Amino acid sequence: MEKMELTKKEFTLFKEYIYEHIGISLSEQKIYLVQARLAKRVKHLGLTDFSAYYHTLVNDASGKEFEYLCSLISTNVTSFFRESKQWDFWKTHLSTMIAGKNNRLRIWSAACSTGEEPYSIAMFLDENLPSSAHFDIKILATDVSPRVLKEASEGVYGPKAIANLSQNYLSRYF
Ligand SMILES: C[S@@+](CC[C@H](N)C(=O)[O-])C[C@H]1O[C@@H](n2cnc3c(N)ncnc32)[C@H](O)[C@@H]1O
Fold it and tell me: Where does 8-73 sit in CATH, by number?
């Protein structure tokens, strides 16, 4: 099957739409990435080109196509306890962060991907908060991609995802 080409004009349309509606800023170099990610969807819908897909997207009052776009365009790399420096920071500053909070903690994992980040936060707090049971803790996890949010709420992780977790964490929390 012939490769579908995303023209610069079409790329600009998607780039502006994505920035305005999702908040993701795409540089000009991302044209091939956008082309590769959207091509499958365009073909799946039986459309002939990206302009037709753009038309479908902006005219879809149900919002379903927008949800698809969010899942297609976002990059969802994550892992449990990713970025060790952040956890070192938490360890050092946890006592200052909770001081004067009346044991009430509200945490927002604003781009949680498949959930490893909010679950890591939960495990971290359980391990590191002095008598964590006395805290009123709520962790809000959100993401622009409905696909990864579904995985996050299912909370099912395979061998690859848990490969770097210690036996202590695995037996206590999984
Ligand atoms: C690279 S992942 C990082 C996941 C996690 N925070 C971590 O550090 O392991 C980035 C996530 O941000 C999400 N994202 C991108 N733009 C977003 C927005 N405007 N609002 C909410 N989530 C967004 C993507 O869908 C993706 O799942």
Answer: 1.10.155.10
Tell me the CA–centroid distance for residue 143 and ligand 1, in Å: 6
CA distance 47 to 45: 5
DSSP 8-state symbol, 57: H
Q: Where are the domains of the chain?
A: 8-73, 84-173
Architecture of domain 84-173: 3-Layer(aba) Sandwich (3.40)
Supply the pTM of this predicted model: 0.87
Q: Which of 143, 147, 157, 164 to mutate to test the pocket of ligand 1 (most atoms within 8 A of CB)?
A: 143
- How big is the chain, counted in residues? 174
Residues with CB under 6 A from ligand 1: 22-24, 74-78, 82, 110-113, 117, 142-145, 148
pLDDT single digits (tens) 76-119: 999 999 999 999 999 999 988 888 878 889 999 999 999 999 99
Query: What atom in ligand 1 is closest to the CA of residue 109?
Result: 6
